[in-house]
Structures are given as structure tokens and as C-alpha cells.
Amino acid sequence: MRADSALTGQTAVVTGVCGRLGQVWTKALLRAGADVLGLDLREPEGPVAKELSACGDEESRRFVFHRADVTDRAGLRDALGHCLDVLDAPTVLVNNAGIDQPPSAESGSWTFENVPDERSAAVLDVNAAGVLRTCQVFGSDMAGRGRGSVINIGSMYGTVAPDPRFYDHIELTPPFLKPPAYGMSKAGVAALTRYLAVLWGPSGVRVNTLAPGGVLGGQDAAFREKFAARVPMGRMAEEEDLTGPLLFLASDMSRYVTGTELTVDGGFVCW
Ligand SMILES: NC(=O)c1ccc[n+]([C@@H]2O[C@H](COP(=O)([O-])OP(=O)(O)OC[C@H]3O[C@@H](n4cnc5c(N)ncnc54)[C@H](O)[C@@H]3O)[C@@H](O)[C@H]2O)c1
User: Fold this and answer.
1) Average model confidence (pLDDT) for the chain?
2) How confident is the model at residue 106 (pLDDT cuts 50, 70, 90)?
3) Contacts of 51 (CB under 8 A, 6+ apart)
4) Whose CA is nearest to atom 32 of ligand 1?
5) Nearest protein CA to atom 18 of ligand 1, as residue
6) Whose C-alpha lies nearest to ligand 1, atom 1?
7) Best substitution site from 24, 93, 95, 96 to test ligand 1's pocket, by max atoms within 8 Å of Cβ?
8) 40 with 67: CB under 8 angstroms?
9) CA dihedral 157, 158, 160, 164 (to 10 degrees)
């Protein structure tokens, strides 16, 4: 099977499409021949809109945006209606929308005992319950039609704890802590993946987690150096490291694979 035509005729849905990785998944799906419905809280604009239509005229016609919040099930049902009206029945679902907290003075920092309830609740609601709701709406439609592949975007922090030493050069009081609810939410995503793989196995819908490691982006030099030193392959992930695993899980290349977590982290969780 050729990767550039592996998804011809398929309709993919990507949540959090305007974010960093949402754009990476979308471009890869378009290039592999799928039509894509992108969902996000905010419209693609400026460089994001340009990026999402940068694959050429033909691909940009196959990309449709719909504003939707993964914490709102009724809104997700509207998005499914839009998908059926303007594209087709969904056959691939990438649950990518997520919130995290970067280490910065603007985002604030707390000791563990003082992390505000509303911060933890928001992370769990979007990252974990948001995946559940989106699966209830789009995944159930796939199961009813007897085919589909769901890819839930997890994180290596669903498996290992963040290393506080990555952040100890950042001058914040109290010192920066990665939100404790982040790893909780991602471990929950992996559990939901197994639950749905069992539920929908007989209906022809496969469900897997893709768990990226740290992706090279706007991190400071000291963080990058400490992080890379901790990765067996000696570097952070680049965007191109992620697209092959996504297309593998989305397409029939993985037709007998369900309920797994594919970690794409250069070996980070091995030691
Ligand atoms: N970037 C990384 O290094 C990394 C590593 C591992 C896992 N991940 C995971 O990959 C996914 C994407 O990460 P990213 O770096 O692209 O993040 P990002 O912040 O760039 O993008 C997230 C997108 O989700 C959208 N979003 C947030 N709340 C939403 C909601 N309620 N409904 C709909 N959309 C919503 C945001 O508007 C944004 O466009 C997340 O699930 C994240 O946890 C990222």
C-alpha cells in the first residue's frame, strides 16, 4: 500500500486542528488522500489558515473547518451533521484537542498542594472527557456503519512522570510544576482506548493511542539540551517523526491493530 494514497476516499475528523500538531496531522491526512473536517474552538486564521491550505488547491478544497468545543456534546453532534452534509460519513477520528501549561510567568506557578481545582478540572475535561465525548458522537457513528479508525493522541506523560529537573533553570516562584492533571488525563485516554477497542472490535472500528514524546518547538535551549540528553535517540521529536505513525494507525496498514499505545518518543519511556 502506498502511503500517499493510503486514505483515498476516507473522511477524517481532527479535533484541535488549529494547534501545532493538529496542523501536522491534517496535512498528513490530506496528502494521504483523505478529506478532513477540522474542529477547534477558534477559526483558522493568519499563518494557521495559510498552513492548512498550503498543501495546494486540490487539498485545501478537501479541508473543511467547523467550530466546535470538545466539552460540548451537542456542538459535536452539530459537527457530525456538518461532516455528513458537506463531506461524508467519518472513517478516521484523530482526538488531538488538548490543553497543557507551558512554563511561563504569565501561566503562573503553584506548589502541588495549591494547584487550583479549576485548572485541574479544565485539563481533565478537555484532554480526557473531551476524547470520551468525541468518541460518543463520531466513534459511535463509525461503529453504526461498521468501519473506522480512532486515534487518540496521548503523551509519554501518561506513562512516566515529568522530570522536574527539565524546568529547574526557569526562575519562577514557586518552581514550575507540570500540571499533575496532564499525565492523569493522558493515562485516562489510554484506558479509554482499551475500553473502546473491546466495545467496538466486533463493529469494525479500531481504536489506538498515539503517544508523542516532546516535540521540538518553542522550548528554550537549556530545556532542549536536558530533554535530548534523556532520550535514547538523543533528540526531541520533529513533525515528520509523527506522520508515519499516524498514517499507519489511520489506514489498513494497521488493520489488525487495536487497543494499543504507539509511543513515538525516541525511546524516552524505555528507562
Ligand atoms: N506538542 C507536544 O510536544 C506534545 C507532546 C505529547 C502530546 N501532545 C498532545 O498533542 C495534542 C496537541 O498538542 P499541541 O502541542 O498541538 O497543542 P496546541 O496547544 O498547539 O493545540 C491544541 C489545540 O486544541 C484546541 N483546543 C483546546 N481546547 C479545546 C476544546 N475544548 N475544544 C476544541 N479544541 C480545543 C486549541 O484551540 C488548540 O488549537 C494535545 O493533546 C497534546 O497533549 C503534544
Assistant:
1) 95
2) confident
3) 23, 27
4) 69
5) 19
6) 215
7) 96
8) yes
9) 40
> What atom of ligand 1 comes closest to residue 214's alpha carbon?
3
Look up residue 11 and give its three cell numbers. Answer: 473522511
* Domains identified in the chain and CATH numbers: 3-103+124-158+181-215+238-262 (3.40.50.720)
Ligand 1 center from residue 19 Cα (angstroms): 6
Please give all residues whose beta carbon lies within 6 A of any atom in ligand 1, as ranges: 15-16, 18-22, 40-42, 69-71, 96-100, 126, 130, 153, 155, 212, 214-215
Question: Model confidence over 173-188: pLDDT tens digits?
Answer: 999 999 999 999 999 9
Catalytic positions are 182
Other C-beta atoms lying within 10 Å of the C-beta of residue 40: 22
Q: 76, 78, 79: which is closest to 36 by C-alpha?
A: 79
Residues sharing a CB contact under 8 Å with residue 102, sequence separation 6 or more, in sequence order: none
Residue 3: band (very low, low, confident or very high) from pLDDT cuts 50, 70, 90: low
Interval 204-252: pLDDT, tens: 999 999 999 999 999 999 999 999 999 999 999 999 999 999 999 999 9
0.70 cut: is pTM over it?
Answer: yes
For residue 112 the three cell numbers come to 502541588
